Amino acid sequence: MFKKLVIIGATVLMLASCVTSPLGRQQLQLMPADQMDAMGIAAFKQLKQGTPTETKAEVNDYVTCVAKAVLEVSNTQAQQWEVLVFRDDTANAFALPGGKIGVHTGLLDIAENEHQLAAVIGHEIAHVLANHSNERVSQEFAVQQGLALAQALGNVQSPMGQTLMGLLGVGAQIGVMLPYSRLHESEADEMGLYLMAQAGFDPKESVRLWQNMSSQGGGEQPSEFFSTHPSHETRIEDLNNAMGKAMQLYQQAQAGGKNPRCQSQ
Q1: Is residue 49 situated within a structural domain?
Q2: Which of 124, 185, 190, 205 does the annotation list as catalytic?
Q3: Other C-beta atoms within 10 Å of 136: how many?
Q4: Can 185 be counted among the known catalytic residues?
């Protein structure tokens, strides 16, 4: 009876926590939004304490200009976001719940202009808008609870039970967590493409950005099946498939006077 109640309770919790992403996909979100914001703010504080930040005003102004232009079309309060440039040679950027954006100086060597930088920042903001962090935390919780439930319902002390638990662990990681992560990346690519276009940045530059990324990495990536990110080729193909709508948004933005002119260093 207890086992049945556990299963029923877990099922009710999962169903009650299902929401819809901005692109219409069903999501599992178990964490309160304010708690996710608090986690993002705390993580950003730690990053600031452990990573040097860029001191050149022209670099900070450039990145902030691009970020603010994208944020202004994101249906969020742009002025409440904090944007920082970290002195790190890796080509990376991130956005966190709680309104935090970080851009590594190494990205500025790959993103050749404001449009390409907007593609990355739009992508990272999209992760926050789509509550991907909440979904990942919720998925991890669901996987762990599922494995615990399997332990409760099965004889895991037997050799077969131990083998089954090992397979469940691998299957949960490759079969559930990683594909969702690739899905998040693809969703953020599409949303970010539309955001940059709405802000007046040329969406075609997003494709050139990923071509730069591919060239910078020598074209080598882990197998897509075992990677948390789509391959460069997949991303470029997906961006091209969404380019028609993005170009319409870009043309509308241009006609409406949105023409950011953020000067690089």
Answers
A1: yes
A2: 124
A3: 17
A4: no
